C-alpha cells in the first residue's frame, strides 16, 4: 500500500476479507447486522475459487432457507444468522466464494442439528 491514508485513526480496526491474494485495500465503514459500525482499513483478498452456480443463486435470492425473506447477497436472514454460533457468524462475514459456500454448508448442518435437539 503506497497511498498515504488521511483522516484515519491509528486505532482503526483492520479487517481482512477472503483468504486469497490481497488485491485491494480500502478505508471504509464496516456495518454489522446488529446495527453497529466502525471505520476500518479493509484488505480485500480474492477468493481462490468461486462458489458453485447453485450457491450463487441462493445468495442472489431473497428467500432464506427457513422460508423468511433475507437480504440479497447474504446467506441467511437475520433470524437464522443470529441463531448461529458466533464463530460461524464471523466466518460467514469473512469468507467469500467457495470458502463461504463451505462455511454455509457447515452452518446449515449445525442448524439442522440444533433443530433436532429442540424437538426432542
Ligand atoms: Zn432464515
Briefly summarize what is shown.
The protein is of the alpha+beta class and 120 residues long. It has 2 domains: 39 residues, no CATH class; 72 residues, no CATH class.
Task: Characterise this structure.
The protein is an alpha+beta fold and 120 residues long. It has helices at residues 53-60, 78-83, 86-94, 97-119; strands spanning 13-17, 22-31, 37-45. The chain folds into 2 domains: 8-46, no CATH class; 49-120, no CATH class. Helices cover 38% and strands 20% of the residues. The chain has a 3-stranded mixed beta sheet with strand order 1-3-2, with no helix packed on it. Helix 3 runs antiparallel to helix 4. 10% of the residues are buried.
- Which stretches of 5+ consecutive residues score pLDDT under 50? none
Order of helices and strands: EEEHHHH
Number of domains: 2
Oligomer category: single chain
Hetero compounds:
zinc ion
Shape descriptor: globular
**Range of strand content:** 15-25%
Distance between the termini: 54 Å
Number of strands: 3
Helix content: 25-40%
List the helices and strands and how they pair.
Elements: E1 13-17, E2 22-31, E3 37-45, H1 53-60, H2 78-83, H3 86-94, H4 97-119
Parallel strand pairs: 1-3
Antiparallel strand pairs: 2-3
Helix pairs in contact: 3-4
The structure holds zinc ion.
Zinc ion binds near residues 64, 76 and 80.
